[in-house]
Amino acid sequence: MRLLIIAGGFAALLVAGAVFALNLPLPPPQAIATYQGDEKRGAYLARLSGCVACHSKKAGEPWAGGNGLKSKFGTFYAPNITSDPKHGIGAWTFADFVRAVRQGVSPSGQPYYPAFPYEFYASLTDRDLADLWAAMRAIPPSAEPSRAHDVGVPFSIRDGLRVWRPFFERANLTASFEEKGSNWNVGQYLVMGPAHCAACHMPRNIAGGLKEGDGLTGDPQMLDGGKSPSLTAEALRARGWTKENLIAALRTGVLPNGDAFGGSMAEVVQESTAFLLTSHLEDIAAYLLDLDE
Ligand code: HEC
Ligand code: HEC
User: Fold this and answer.
1) Which of 101, 102, 167, 240 has its CA 20 to 30 A from that of 173?
2) Whole-angstrom Cα distance, residue 96 to residue 93?
3) Predicted pLDDT at 269
4) What burial class does residue 81 get, using C-beta atoms within 10 Å of its C-beta: 0-12 exposed, 13-18 middle, 19+ buried?
5) d(CA 124, CA 195)
6) Mean pLDDT of all residues in the chain?
7) In this predicted model, what pLDDT tens digit does every residue of 209-254 receive, in sequence order?
């Protein structure tokens, strides 16, 4: 009898917990200004933001998803985001797209996993999103079905993210500092925002949340099992980085000593920073090395 009462109490707690979680609100849709999207600029933003890298499988059709992102919570598969109405996002509205990318909420009102780095896209402007959307609409449809994530209970319960969010979701870290000059500020916007360098170079707590207070001090235990070095100005200078060699390395993937970037950084360069405008690489270097310009 006592066991039954305990079991009953436990079940009631679980149900109460689930009801509580289901009622936790997600951010409401934001008002969006209308812009005529620029497809070319959008394609550039997609490179800068790493969308192409994550949403394309090595030998697969670009944007058709299937790329596996290993983490200690399981493997997440980036979905097909081509213009296919059934398997991609062809049936979405622009507002659906904005809410997904900037707020991490699906058209059906479900939270997305932070494996999709929407937290870093919160700083994309309405204009950026209009351009990205124009680029996305131009992607030919692919009928490749998206692959289900391979994550175990409790992480497979999407509604659990409603509890995770208020505690661990990061704040927008791109507030500008006037005294720092425009290169530095654009650099900060790129590194802490869409280029999401901080996603890998900022340490995380056991729940996978970013330890914002630590800054870009590197992550000795990245979610994918790798390690990333510190990118603070002090650490970079101590390791011999200058504006010139940093720009060259992000452009070519070759380090000053002739080695190549290893781990996931190799892909970041190949799929993203190699394509950036020199002015944007200069901004990134100005911010990371804390240069006065
Ligand atoms: C680090 C890998 C990664 C990057 C970079 C990334 N995504 Fe994703 N994206 C994902 C994953 C994983 C999901 C699935 C999330 C989930 O199921 O909760 C996703 C989901 C989405 C969805 C929702 C699709 C659907 O069917 O519901 C859209 C839209 C999307 N991403 C667009 C983008 C855009 C645009 C960019 C660049 C600005 C981008 N993604 C960058 C990994 C990534
Ligand atoms: C997907 C995770 C990931 C992202 C995103 C990422 N990095 Fe890295 N980065 C790494 C890893 C892992 C290493 C270590 C590479 C190695 O072992 O060779 C690294 C190394 C570096 C180094 C070399 C530091 C040194 O002294 O050896 C620099 C510089 C760097 N990253 C800059 C950046 C910048 C700038 C961005 C954003 C544009 C960025 N990273 C985005 C994972 C990442």
Assistant:
1) 240
2) 5
3) 97
4) buried
5) 11
6) 91
7) 999 889 999 999 998 889 999 999 999 999 999 999 999 999 999 9
* Max CA separation in the chain (angstroms): 75
**Separation between Cα atoms, residue 193 and residue 172, nearest integer Å:** 8
Please answer whether residues 102 and 129 qualify as being in contact, where contact means their C-beta atoms are separated by less than 8 angstroms.
yes
**Tokens, residue 257:** 């000593």
Check if the beta carbon of residue 194 is closer than 8 Å to that of residue 268. no
What sign does the CA torsion over 265, 267, 270, 272 have? negative
Angle among Cα 171, 45, 86 to the nearest 5 degrees reads: 90
Which residues' Cβ are closer than 6 Å to ligand 1? 46, 49-51, 54-55, 69, 76, 78-79, 81, 89, 100-101, 106, 112-113, 115-117, 121, 132
- Provide the token pair at 173: 């870290």
pLDDT of 17 reads 64
Structure tokens at 45: 């933003």
The encoded tokens of residue 248 equal 């060259």
Residue 66 identity:
G
Token duo for residue 177: 């500092």
Under a CB-based contact definition with an 8 Å cutoff, are residues 182 and 193 in contact?
no
**Both tokens of residue 153?**
């209970």
Contact 117, 204 (CB under 8 A): no
Pocket of ligand 2 (CB under 6 A): 191, 195-197, 199-201, 226, 228-229, 231, 239, 246, 250, 261-265, 268, 273, 284
CA 50 to centroid of ligand 1, rounded, Å = 10
